[in-house]
Structure formats: structure tokens, C-alpha cells
Design goal:
five-stranded antiparallel β-sheet, 3 helices, 5 strands, binds nickel (II) ion
């Protein structure tokens, strides 16, 4: 089922999301809905708070034949290496994007959609995507990671859009 993507300004996007204790049917349904909603919006990642559910879960698919799509529950990002600056956008801020500095490579730990423990190193676009989605679980948006001046410009552009 498609869910409405919450836009910047919705307080749920600023919540510190709660860990998931039980991967029950409700959560499994949410995972399917997140995937469906992400593909419909042509995004490469979507976090639960973006559809109004403040829990620690996101889905991703960077559309790379060498990188399988995934689900992460209660993720932890560890052992960052290097930094990269690339353009980044967000389904909750359609029309906006800016250069954001991220860790080049990270170790990802968490559970998959079946509740199995996973651990892998991510780099390139996958690393950026996972850091972006993980930020959503802490109520952080990409525009919090640009300079105050850039943020002001982005916010002005956003207000004009509405
Ligand atoms: Ni986003």
C-alpha cells in the first residue's frame, strides 16, 4: 500500500525514532509499504519516519546491479573512513538538493527485514544513502549538514515552492 511521504515541516521528521523490539506483522507490512512508496516516488531510500512512523527502520535500493536492495532495522553505523562531498536530495524536500559531506565508507550493522543480523561495509552511493536514511531516524535532514548560508538559501527556495 502506498503511504503519503511527509514533507519538510512535518514534526515527525524531527523525531528521534524508537528502536524496534519485535518484527511483527505490522512492521513487515510497513516494510512492504516503504518499498512500494520508495519505488513509486523513484527514490533510492525511504525511512519509516518519512511515512509518519517514528521507528528505526529504512529501505533502500540504489539501482545498481552489483548492490542488492535492502532493509535495515535498528542500524548502527561504525568505523567511518574518509570523506566525500556529493550532491544529495530527499523525498521529504522535493526539488531541493545540495552538496553534503559524508563518510566515504562505513561499517553497517543491524537487522534485515527478516530479523536476521547483518553486517557489511558500504561505500560510494550506498554509503551516502545509508547515512542519509540513518539521519532520518535521528530527526536529521540533509539541510542540517550544509553551511548556515546554504541552508538559508535552501529554505528560501522551499518557501517559494509552497
Ligand atoms: Ni531523505
Amino acid at each position: 500500500m502506498l503511504r503519503d511521504i511527509r514533507l519538510f515541516g512535518d514534526p515527525v521528521l524531527r523525531e528521534k525514532c524508537a528502536p524496534i523490539e519485535d518484527l511483527d506483522d505490522e512492521i513487515r507490512e510497513l516494510i512492504e509499504d516503504l518499498q512500494e512508496t520508495m519505488y513509486e516516488a523513484d527514490g533510492i531510500g525511504l525511512a519509516a519516519p518519512q511515512v509518519g512512523v517514528p521507528i528505526r527502520l529504512f529501505v533502500y535500493d540504489i539501482r545498481d546491479p552489483d548492490v542488492p536492495p535492502g532493509v535495515l532495522v535498528n542500524p548502527e553505523l561504525l568505523e567511518p573512513e574518509g570523506t566525500v562531498r556529493e550532491d544529495e536530495g530527499c523525498l521529504s524536500l522535493p526539488g531541493l538538493s545540495d552538496i553534503v559531506e559524508r563518510d566515504e565508507s562505513i561499517l553497517v550493522r543491524g537487522l534485515d527485514g527478516e530479523g536476521q543480523a547483518v553486517e557489511f561495509r558500504a561505500d560510494g552511493l550506498l554509503s551516502r544513502c545509508i547515512q542519509h536514511e540513518n539521519d532520518h531516524l535521528d530527526g536529521v535532514l540533509f539541510l542540517d549538514r550544509v553551511s548556515p548560508l546554504k541552508r538559508k538559501m535552501l529554505l528560501r527556495k522551499w518557501q517559494k515552492r509552497e
